[in-house]
Structure formats: C-alpha cells, structure tokens
Design a protein that fits this description.
electron transport, redox-active center, Thioredoxin_domain, alpha/beta, transport
C-alpha cells in the first residue's frame, strides 16, 4: 500500500512538477483539525490509485515557499497537478467521493 509522501519546498519541483503521473498535493499543518479529518481520506486515495496517481503532503508551516507560490490561504487544500501544471483544487475537508470524482477527470 502506498502512503502519501511528505514533500518539502526543495523537493516540490522534482516530486510534483516533474512527475510523469498526475499528483495530488495535500497542503496541511499539524495544528489544523480539518487537515487531520481529511488525512485518512488522502491515504485511502493513495492506496486506491496507486500506479495511476502520486499523492504527496506539504506541511505549510515548514514549507512556506510552495504554499505561498500557489496562494494557499486555507488548509486543507488539495491540489491536482498534471504535466507540471495545477489543473484543479479542492479546499476543505471533503468526503472521499468528492475527491475521487474530481481526480477521475485527470487520470
């Protein structure tokens, strides 16, 4: 089972922008209640779409450059990247069905 990998400011370009697979990026922080609620959903998505989708987490407290670059104002923000471009995003703790429906468009 694939778990969501943590990605830092330094690795974002390599892990997300240059990824051959679409990437779901979970922007979160340890103090964020809704982030903790959505975390198991993100892990389920990582397992369900293993091989089709890369799933990574960015701690916005520790990696302010990436969060700033993509205008992250509220967390959790789940962003979808494909071919190095941001193609969609979901803000807030959403049910798995909502996230899956959004992701299916890009797989």
């Amino acid at each position: 089972m694939s778990a969501a990998a943590s990605v830092t400011d330094d690795l974002f370009e390599q892990e997300v922008i240059e990824s051959p697979l679409p990437v779901l990026v979970d922007f979160w922080a340890p103090w964020c209640g809704p982030c903790r609620m959505v975390a198991p959903v993100v892990e389920e998505i990582a397992a369900q779409y293993e091989g089709q989708l890369k799933v990574v987490k960015v701690n916005t407290d520790e990696n302010p450059q990436v969060a700033g670059k993509y205008g992250i104002r509220s967390i959790p923000t789940l962003m979808i990247f494909k071919g190095g471009q941001k193609v969609d995003m979901v803000v807030g703790a959403v049910p798995k069905s909502t996230l899956s429906t959004t992701l299916e468009k890009y797989l």
